[in-house]
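Worked example 2:
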Amino acid sequence: MSTEKPTMDIVALFQCLRPSLPSTTWRQLSRIALALLVMTGRVTMLGISRWAGKGGSYRTVQRFFSTVIPWAILFWVFFRHHVYCPDDVYLAAGDDVIVTKAGKHTHGLDRFFSSLYGKPVPGLAFFTLSLVSVQKRRSFPLRVEQVVRSDAEKAASQAKAAAKKPKAPHTKRRPGRPKGSTNTHKATCTLTPELVRIKAMVEALLRLITTVLSVTYLVLDGHFGNHNALQMARQCNLHLISKLRCDAALYFPYTGP
């Protein structure tokens, strides 16, 4: 099967990225993108070089992946030129992607919970922010960052897991509000390291797209259906769309006198 037509299509789509990339990097990107579309099996630099053909040697692939590239800007330029529709409504959405990985020396290697396996697995995690088209019902990734958990984030995760373990039986306290407790301001809360990282990504995305479109809602999965995530979204001037926990205390608003 000839690969001439896909090559021409990809080069035509990538023309909008020329002002944001050096010519050499742009040419390497075109070769590697074509190889990624046609190759089979697990994606590795050696596999890419075998499918890239002329101009896509293993050393060229290595140089490309060691080059610092403004991916967030490239994603936005591509979206604005080929995808953006002024009459459409867009939502910001975020989610984690887990890639299983063996070994011990890969940067960011850790144990992350995978919904596909239903348990924590060793691998790499990436958090992605996308713009979701309401009319087309499609997601367009605009910002992807690898999740490298800090010591504080690991400690918080361990403390949360320890709190879920069954404790020794104790005397049941009396119902009602404990004596001496005071009111607290609901909007003031301490964001977890995970929410601080996501907030920085959301703010960077909003600064990038603010001159072209405005976003009102942030969509996150049930892991973020809590008060802290809500306050994080409000601090970014967004409204949170998520799934409440099964034990969330939800009440209808009072309609009496």
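Residues 71-162+186-246 form a domain with the Transposase Inhibitor Protein From Tn5; Chain A, domain 1 fold (CATH 3.90.350.10). The first strand starts at residue 90 and ends at 100.
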